[in-house]
Amino acid sequence: MDITEQMILRVIDANINRLREGLRVSEDICRFALNDQALSRQLKALRHHVKQAGDMIAPYSRLLDARDVQSDVGATTPNKDEARRDDIQRILAANMKRAQECCRVLEEFAKLYSDEAASTFKTMRYNLYTLEKNIYDIMEDKSI
Q: Is the model's pTM score more than 0.90?
């Protein structure tokens, strides 16, 4: 793998990981805090779609080969926003925004490998915008 491809796959790997993490936190909020089976299933399905779209870009082993946590200049950079969350709504907001932003990055970088993967991440991003609103509506109804 040449250095340029390694850099690109490193970006893709990091964003796939962050996307799955953001979806998982949001899924657990819907599952355990809201007891909403439909929303938690939708988020779980999106997590599985991430893997499928990622496979269209590169096999998991190639993404792992590109991973370089030790050289990540942002890994130890403090982020005041991540250090504290005031309530469950802020946890949800942070994780939904993280997921949406990762979809945008993946949409752009996937264009280098697969139009289908790029389109999948774009669709996923718009689905997340709608899901976010639906989850907040339910939180509001339950006074959370």
A: yes
Structural domain boundaries of the chain?
3-65+85-141
CB burial of 77-108 (b: ≥16 within 10 Å; e: otherwise) equals eeeeeeeeeeeeeebbbbbbebbbbbbebbbe
- Tell me the average confidence (pLDDT) per consecutive run of 10 residues in the chain, 144 residues long: 93 98 98 97 97 96 94 79 83 97 98 98 98 96 90
- φ, ψ (nearest 5 deg) of residue 139: -60, -40
**Cβ partners under 8 Å of residue 68, min gap 6:** 10
Tell me which of 1.10.10, 2.30.30, 1.10.3470, 1.20.1260 is the CATH number of domain 3-65+85-141. Answer: 1.20.1260
